[in-house]
Every structure is written in structure tokens, then in C-alpha cells.
Amino acid sequence: MIDEIGLIVALLLLLVFFNMAETSLTGASRPLMLQLAEEGNARAACVNTLRARGERLLGAIVLGNTLAAILASSLATAVAIDLAGNAGVAYGTAIMTVVVLIFGEILPKTVAIRRPNRVALALALFMRPVAWLFGPPVAVLQAGVDWVLRSLGLTLETTPNPEIAITELKGAIAIHAVTDEIRDEGKMMRSILDLGDVSVGEIMVHRRNLMTIDADLPVSQIIEQAAASPHTRIPIWRGEPDNIVGILHNKTLLRALRDHPGDACEAIDVAALATPPWYIPESTSLLDQMHAFRKRREYLALVVDEYGALQGVVTLEDILEEIVGEISHDAATAPGTARAPSAAPRAGEERPIEVTGVRRQPDGGYEIDGTVTIRDLNREFDWRLPDDNAATLAGLLLFEARMIPEQGQKFLFHGFRFEVLARTRNQVTKIRVNPPAEEKAEA
Length: 443
Description:
- By secondary structure, the protein is α+β, with helices and mostly antiparallel strands.
- The protein has 18 helices and twelve strands.
- It has a five-stranded antiparallel β-sheet. It has a four-stranded mixed β-sheet with strand order 1-7-6-5. The protein has a three-stranded mixed β-sheet with strand order 2-3-4.
- The N and C termini lie far apart (73 Å).
């Protein structure tokens, strides 16, 4: 009797082991285990090996789990019959159901699911010989399962799906990047994954905001305009502003001035100094354009629409800003002088806004320039404004209103309240935005 009870206890412990192994090995963080294995952790490498053989591992766990549960229940029933006769069948079944359910299933799985990484590392080395021992019978059983699936005309997808992988990465970032310490890193990682879904037309500098130079101007005026520009590469045009004939680099212009001192500088052919313009369609994704910049060793490209009309300019810096946020240039800083970094907010202070053209208002709303992109706002404030049909806040307002609004008009879209503060001709230049949280507070 004592031997049977001891064997039942041993089988229940095996049941605990198999259930903890199943829950922890399937729930352990795959990225964490890969990183630990690269750092030389043998247990993590063992976890990865077991998970790579997913069907064999699962089969071994299910087989061991089933054998332990059946044997424990059978022995318990036999002991109960010896003690209580035929009524022992009911007693044994009731007692083993409760014991197996609580101590063999719920308890070990609860422990494993709360500490999956730690439990997986602890049990991996013990699970490896079990998987090897049960390998042959599991292979036979798996062959039978595959035959049944083929007979039913069912196939299991084994080819990795890149879209699912990217979605999983975004979900992992959203889960882990919730603290202030890694908030910025999470934003950058999400932005990298979104590069393939964003077109250059959504982030380009629009043609109306371009700084260009007429190539037919006197050289002295060209030099003056180039010196006043904050950019090192300037599109030059001839005849009409849309007819870009080249990209003038300030360094090239300086070299030409060095070679033509004094009045001889007027003999410089500015158009000949410029590099040929590079045109790209506005539908090009940021990921493809970044690769193109690197391959061509270029920094700036002109964006055209489907009719070949100039729409704007995109630079490598524009793409980098989509990843790291806005890169500010302090024109007032003297050459060779380092600009002091922005001070971090003190405890209780609001975090400074990093997007240019956005100003926080005392009542909790925001005064935003119409040219600010929706992506920058969503990334800065964790908003969910749609950017499928418009790239800028003004564009979103025009799309939703289906009209060119007047100054002072108010709208309510997607839970946000918009008020037109300024309009120049047909362009909405300044908008007041109250997010849903502020709307509820005011109510």
C-alpha cells in the first residue's frame, strides 16, 4: 500500500514537471532566449534547441503527461478499491480528479506562466533527455497525425510570414516600451518598422516651402542667397521655379570662389557647378529611398507626382527624423560653439514638446501649425489620428471637413476638437487641437 502511494506521488510530481515544462517552454520569451544564448548561456541554448524541434517537444510532453496522469489515476483507483471495495472506484476518481486538477494542472501551470523564462531555464536541461527518450514513439505518432491531416486535405503553414513577424515585433515593442526609461527607444523601433509603409510624399518638404535659387541671377546674388540659406544643398532653376536644372552644393561654390578671386567670380557658371537633379516618385517608400540614398551616395532627391510635376524635396535627414524625431538646427549658434542640450524635465514638470510648430496651451490644448505631420503628432503624444488620406494636420482637417474651413470654425473628428485659428488664402496655417482627454475634462 505504501509503495503504491509513493508511486502515485512520484507520478504526480512527473505530472507537475511536464505541465510546468509545457507552459514555460512555450511561453518563454524567444528574443530573450536568443540573446542569452548569444551571451553564452547554456540553458538558454538548450531552450532554443528544444523549441526548434517544436513537434517533437510537444509530443514528448503530451506523451509523458498522459502516461503519468493515467498511471497515477489507475493506481489510485486500485488503492481505493482495496480500502473501500467497489465504492472505491468513485472515491478514487473523485479524489484524483481534484488532486490532478489542482496540484497537477492549475498549480504548476500558474507558477510557470508567471515566471516562464526562469522556469524554462531551470527545466530545459532535464527536458532534453526526456525529449530524446520519447523521440521514437513521438515520431511514430507524429507520422500518424500527418497522415490524418493529409487524408483530410489539411496542410500546416510552415513558411515564415514577414508581415506576421513585423506585427509581432510591433506588439512586443508596445508591450515592453511602456516606461519612461525606454519610451523614446520604443518610438524609434516602431518608426523603423514603419519605414516600408510610409511614402516620401508624406514627409517631403513641399515645393511651396522650398528654398531655391535662380541660376540666371548674377553670381554675387547667388552667393548672397546661398550664404543666407541654412542648407548646404540648394536646388537651382532656370526659366521657371519648377524647372530644376541642378543641385548646388555650398562647398562646390566655395571652391569655385577660391579659384576665381575678386571680380573673376562673375565668370563662374553656377549651372555647371551643380550636380544633375535626381527625381523620384512620391509613392516611393522610406525604406526603399533610404537604401537608394545609401547606394547612390546621395543626400537629396526631388519628388514628383504621377504627371512628373515637382512636388517637393526629400533628404536623408528627413528619413532619419522619422526614426529619431526632429533634428533641430540652431542657426544662432556660432560656428565652433557647441549648443547646450535641452534640460531634462524636473519631477512634476511636463516633458518638453519635441515637434516644431506645436505649442502647449494652459488649458491642456495645443496650438499647432497646419504643416505639422500627423505622424509626428501621433508619435509625440501617442495619439491615433489617421494618416491614410492626409500627411499633415491641415490636410486631415480638409479631408474630414470636405471643404476649406473659415477662420474660427470648429470641428469634431475622431474624438478630437479642431478650431481653425489662422488661414492664408486657401491654406489652413494654424489649428487649435483638444485631444479626447481634455474634452472629457472640460465636460
